[in-house]
Specification:
Required for the transposition of the insertion element. The protein is an alpha/beta fold. It contains 15 helices and eight strands. The strands form two sheets. Strands 3, 4, 5, 6, 7 and 8 form a six-stranded mixed sheet that branches.
């Protein structure tokens, strides 16, 4: 009864929001205004009218500025401090991906491959219709900023590297094709996550991944000790060719999905659940002991699956050589999958990109925003644990 009522309430809220664009604008404006005011409070070390010894300045007045979003232009009050030192990065970050999205929609309209709905959306967002020159003006500043990000020199080691690709629909010469978007995330010596590269390729292959990794090395990628990816054959070969000293971890989540190919449709659920538990063990010795027990239990019932697991599971257990606190982050590509989900949420608005450039532009803009947010986070991983482990291994080997 409660569940049904809750579902009804949720549905009503969704219908209300989806049907009232003014309400959505008001809610978003309120949220963004709170962010701006919160930034000022953090900058000054004090909330409005708060008396505190830690205060570093005082509020002055506001100035008005507009922020273009997909549900219309928001008129915001941006706070000032008396010394004029406060600056917000909110507009630059938010507008970057929004402009990329608007540009992609506008290109669809100009090229005659969109609908009246696309025309209405883009005109509402920016207040005017679009010409090729207008799109060029939108893209110019974006492309310059994104090029700086994509070509920046990587001047520190990245012990951990996570690689993956996703596919987007792109129209080329009147034909709709799937384009691979290759992404690399690195974790540096301070334990911070960073988006290192975002590139497009006609397809995932050994040569496309090899070029991707070689370009990273040309930009200064160094110190890679551990790489996580799925089992794509071309990617595996490229990693072994270019990152010769790095250990490779096959994503265990992809591995468990692949295992379904070796099971009958009505297989025992306990079989895969018990296989999944192996990845929660404290060390490789425990994992191998549980693996042996799993093999003995299921060999008779699912011989095809068990034979496949025995032949391939070793590639998914490389993470056990790392400090235990790092296991949860590096036994799968989930860190990158979450970024891909955010990309998907935004690119599905476009559905089919008018060209490869607009596709790459939007995804890079989204990745830059994520990259900048990660840089502001506190340390994601304690990399001192890796250094301590290496010292201990050297001591034991001496």
């Amino acid at each position: 009864m409660t569940t049904s009522k809750g579902n009804t309430l949720n549905l009503s809220a969704k219908e209300l929001v989806s049907g009232d664009r003014d309400l959505m604008k008001a809610l978003l404006k309120e949220a963004v205004q709170e962010v701006l005011d919160g930034e000022m409070s953090e900058f000054l070390g004090a909330a409005p009218h708060e008396r505190t010894e830690g205060r570093s300045g005082y509020r002055a007045d506001y100035y008005h500025s507009g922020l273009v979003t997909r549900i219309g232009k928001l008129e915001l009050r941006v706070p000032r401090d008396r010394s004029g030192e406060f600056s917000t990065a909110l507009f630059e970050r938010y507008a970057r991906s929004e402009k990329a999205l608007v540009a992609a929609l506008a290109e669809m309209y100009v090229q005659g491959v969109s609908t009246r709905k696309v025309k209405a959306i883009t005109e509402e967002l920016c207040g005017h219709s679009f010409s090729a020159s207008a799109i060029s003006a939108i893209n110019k500043g974006l492309d310059e900023a994104l090029a700086r990000f994509s070509n920046r020199h990587l001047d520190e080691p990245y012990p951990y590297l996570i690689l993956d690709a996703r596919y987007e629909k792109v129209r080329e010469n009147g034909v709709i094709n799937s384009m691979a978007v290759q992404i690399a995330i690195g974790i540096n010596g301070d334990g911070q996550r960073q988006v290192l590269a975002v590139e497009t390729a006609n397809r995932e292959s050994q040569s496309s991944w090899r070029e991707f990794l070689l370009r990273l090395k040309e930009r200064g990628l160094s110190g890679v000790e551990f790489v996580v990816s799925d089992d794509h054959a071309g990617l595996k070969k490229a990693i072994s060719e270019v990152l010769t000293e790095a250990a490779w971890q096959r994503c265990y989540v992809h591995f468990l999905r692949n295992a379904l190919d070796y099971l009958p449709r009505k297989a025992d659920d306990d079989c895969l659940q018990e296989l999944r538990w192996i990845y929660d063990r404290r060390d490789l010795q425990e994992a191998n002991r549980d693996l042996a027990a799993w093999i003995a239990k299921w060999q008779g019932k699912y011989p095809k699956l068990v034979d496949w697991v025995e032949a391939n599971i070793g590639e998914t257990l490389s993470f056990y050589r790392l400090p235990r606190a790092h296991h949860k982050h590096l036994k799968s590509t989930n860190m990158l999958e979450r970024l891909n989900e955010e990309i998907k949420r935004r690119t599905r608005v476009v559905r089919i990109f008018p060209n490869a450039e607009s596709c790459l532009r939007l995804i890079r803009a989204l990745c830059v925003e994520t990259h900048e947010a990660w840089l502001e986070d506190s340390r994601y991983m304690n990399m001192a644990l890796l250094a301590e482990q290496k010292k201990e291994l050297m001591r034991l080997a001496a």
